[in-house]
Specification:
The chain has one domain: Aspartate Aminotransferase, domain 1. A five-stranded antiparallel sheet has the order 1-2-3-4-5. The protein contains four helices and five strands; from the N terminus they run αααβββββα. With 150 residues, it is α+β, with helices and mostly antiparallel strands. It is globular and about 40 Å long. Helix content is 45%, strand content 18%.
Length: 150
Amino acid sequence: MAGTGNSTYEGFTAEERAAMKEHAQEQKKAARRGSRADKAAEAERDVLAKIAEMRDSDRIMAERVHAVITANAPVLAPKLWYGMPAYALNGKVVCFFQSAEKFKARYATLGFNDPAKLDEGAMWATSFALTEVTAEVEARIAALVKQAVS
């Protein structure tokens, strides 16, 4: 924002630009898929392949998050969203896993979008930092995704 004197905005980071490019590729690939069953199977393979590419700690957490979400909210369809494992209902992303490495962050994130029914009064969390997926964390994720699709 030229002329204001206080702005430090310098555009998108390289990681953000890469995520946007991944999203465009995901959209093109989705448009080329065949039947609904083929689309779902390929989308899940894409998610699992993306998880397999992650570094050890992110990969281990993403595998556990994927298992918990698919077991506790089977109505959610795995898909890639800006290069991240995501889970959608009727084509709209409800929740996603963002690896720490993707944006050079200190922790991975489990995030929820608008379709998630997590509303709690006038204010509620839509994003959770993850440093480890313990049995307690798995139970909390299970409860959140069940609530999100209720």
